[in-house]
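Please, structure for the following, as tokens.
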Amino acid sequence: MTTANRVTLVPVAVRPRTIGIEAVARESGLHPDVVRRFVKIGLIEPADGTPQSPRFALDAPAMLARAARLRRDLGLGYGGAVLASQLLDRIGRLEAQLRNNEREVTRWTRRG
């Protein structure tokens, strides 16, 4: 007689990795009220959650910390500082993509 092991699979909802406003504030070095103000005026948008409990992308604290430094060091307004921070992030991603493409081209040309 053979005894079969039964495994019951239970569906689990996978939630995107996000963080709450308190974590964003702590990790960016900003007061939670400043982060709430950024949300209220539309400088940063929640990735998930509810209006009472917004959730943010994992890169939100770094972007806000950079925006705070740009505001402090260059005298930019909140909107300009957030925009500059977003553009710097975009430039970084594009430069990384360019380096990757250059490596691919080098790899393919050496085969020839």
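The chain has four helices and three strands. Strands lie at 18-20, 48-49, 54-57.
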